[in-house]
Amino acid sequence: MRQTILVLCCFLFLSNTLQAQKSGTVKGYVSDTINNSTLTQASVSLLRAQDSILVKFTRAKEDGYFELDNIKAGKFILLVSYPKYADFVDQFSVDSTKLIKDYGKINLADKGRILSEIIIKGNRAAMKIKGDTLEFDPKAFKIEPNAKVEDLIKQFPGIQIDKDGKITAQGETVTKVLVDGEEFFGDDPTLVTKNLRADMVDKVQLYDKKSDQAAFTGIDDGQKTKTLNVKLKEDKKNGYFGKVELGGGTDNFYKGQAMFNKFWDKKKLAAYGIFGNTGQVGLGWGDKDKYGQSGYQVTDDGGINFSNNGNDEFDSWDGQFNGEGIPVAQTGGIHFDNKWNNDKESINANYKIGDIKLSGNRNDINQQNLSSSSIYNTSDKSFEKNMTKNKLDLAYEIKIDTTLTLKLNVDGLFKNSNSSEAEMRKGTDEQGNQLNNLKQTTTNDVDDKTFNINTLLTKRLKKKGRTLSLNLSQSSTNSKSDGYLNSRAEFFTPSVISPDSTKVVDQNKVNNINNIAFKSNLIYTEPLSKSLSLILNYGFNISNGKADRKSFNQSANGDYNVLDSIFSNNYELDQTINQLGGIFSYKKNKTVFSFGSKFSGVNFKQYDVYTDSSFKRKFVNYMPQINFQYNFKQREALYLSYNGNTDQPTLEQIQPIRNNQNQLNTILGNPNLDPSFRNDFRGSYYSYKVLSNQYFSVNGSYNFTLNPIISNVVTNDRGESISQFVNLENKATTSYYLNSNFGKTIKAIDMTAGIGLSANKNVNYNYINAKLNQTKNSSYSFNLNLSKYKEKKYNFNANFGPTYNVADASINENSDSNGWGFNGNFWTNIELPFKLEISTDGNYQYNGKTQVIQETFERFIWNASITKKFLKSDNLRVSITGRDLLNQNVGFNRSAFNGNISQSTYTTIQRYFMFSVSWDFSKMGGGETKQN
């Protein structure tokens, strides 16, 4: 009996001991958010989350410390209060895996300060950070009646929009703009920013969009796109809205556009049509970066500038307008998306058709620096181009059950382009003696067809964090072209008037190129603990390409039917890739950390049909990666990453196809090339303070490539070049980029001011006539931004600052092209009585003299308009606009690469005046849309 009682007492003691061990503790410090002083005797209440019943209560000690212990498992609410301060409220849980909740320092905000800043001043949290996403609140910015999303985004800190609608955020171009997380006409951001109304927007998110599979698994596959997501207000998702605009001007300039949108339930229907020749209409269909660049350019391509990179194809224009030439464009499309079956199924479809014509002239001046001398090249070119596109894309997603999802993407593109070009090129030595002369005309007609299908299947398994996903994709492309090349190159001996040798090409070029590729990627995630996961992936890819390029000379009767076997070829390329990778991912509290690597084994075989010979190669790619993210608080975060990658030599570098399109340059293959290894480090930090509307951001990157592949160019005294790619031992090519922005509201003058600093540098190498040349290209800039808004009076924004560019080449001490520049932009809007409005914007660009180019370039492009608003909602507008009022929009470009300095001038759109009428209509949420 005594033994039984003793055992029972021991059991009760152990039970009570274990129960006590499972109780939780909550602790922290209470202080003032402004001066960081302790708030003694602050009340700390613990409430049960289920019914808000008080569980425990205490007050902060003299040092602000508080502690509540012996808390049983469950969900609770912590309430911290102090007179004249805003309450702190947070919900948390206590269980066997988390018995201690340490809040650290809890900063309470002064109510009086909050009221003066937020209620009286109308100040809101303009920006906050959620994970790796920056989120902007439109209510913190000023929105004019009938303003578009573009007008709203212009006010966001750290984001710029140029006159063509190009969006730059954190130094990178934004290539996608989504609506409620969905594609809206696909890959033309301006269709959203220039047409959707700003007062419909609930929030705007900025992030690097990952692939669907990477977003599901958390494993970085390197596919990232700088993206803006425009989330609409719930009450703006029912009704219709749109815009109609027509305009005609001097010198036969015109424009027109119409867009209609209807939202109902969970459906969106949109259609648009745009036409014009003002250069403000682009197709933007994602073949390449839509936006061109202007001004002083310093490139880091690391290679000699060869025509078409050795491919025996004509200038493959992608249909984009980058400011060079005079365009005539017309495009239209229709969009539909819907969700149904309790949001388990969704569809997103887009169809677009467009046509663009482009014509113009271009003049180039180039200084080609050799080891002991220089060659001066001039070129005059005229061109006519035309392209017609049809594109259809469809996305369908179904949630088969709560754990299984299938997503299907299909798209197809049909494109026809034709072009003609005439060029005259001349090369001279330093004394002005003629070295070579080239006259060339080309015509080309191309038909392209592309089809892609992608399937993603994701499965969440029973254990939390355990997932399986499979991505399958197949793509096929076909390109057929038929064109003519007529070229005559003459070469001179110095001081001799007549050429001593001549090369003539008169050929018909017929190409037929096909590519089929299949890719698969299987990813499995396994949680090793509550914070640590292992992610494994296996991928298998196969591709097959066929390139049949034929060159025909003229026969005696004038027909092009004599095959030139030297400049004709028929290649087949088969490639197989097996990839295996493993990533460890750690997520706990404010920290996210991952590290691992991928390995891929590649086999490819190139078969020459004409010679019945093959070229085979096997290699292994190594791709380590490390990512770190720390969220200090909601509006402050740090990101760091490292990625390594093995870069294999391209087929063009190993075995280039014979090409006679550029008779001044010949490329030789190098089958002995070894791979290089690229190391890429990136980092960024963001911080935002609500009360002072103060933001600070810095982001940058540094990369270096070991055993890089560089060009080895031998140029004779008549300007003929022969090049080959080689590996550079014991040296690395390097580059870095740094961008920083700081800004805040200056209350004394009610103006927002910001400064921006940016720097980038590239160090590359190449051999010129057996001598190693080191090229240093750098650019440094300082930018000051000022903005001020007075409701119903004016809106002003200006940014300006100096730049300094460096382009040094060790090959020739007289080849430096270092110089100062200055850039400035402004835009302002002034409201006058009688519903009149004046708008004006300008861009100033200055490029100073350099050692090579002994002339300055300066232009100021000034635009202005006066608008009369009609109707009660001011949505009918009549405008008179003047573009380039000072007639200074001269097409201009400077560039430097591998010791070569170039300057270009080209045809572009100059001054015109236009009369236009626009009408915005809207009926959302059951009534006329009210402006903020």
Automatic annotation (TrEMBL):
Record bears the keyword Phosphoprotein: no
Subcellular localization, as worded in the UniProt entry: Cell outer membrane
Broad class of where this protein is predominantly found: membrane
Positions of the Outer membrane protein beta-barrel domain: 460-919
Domain of life, per lineage: Bacteria
Signal peptide: 1-20
Keyword Lyase: no
Entry keyword set: Cell outer membrane, Membrane, Receptor, Signal
Name the UniProt record assigns to this protein: TonB-dependent receptor
Organism listed in the record: Flavobacterium chungbukense
Lineage: Bacteria, Pseudomonadati, Bacteroidota, Flavobacteriia, Flavobacteriales
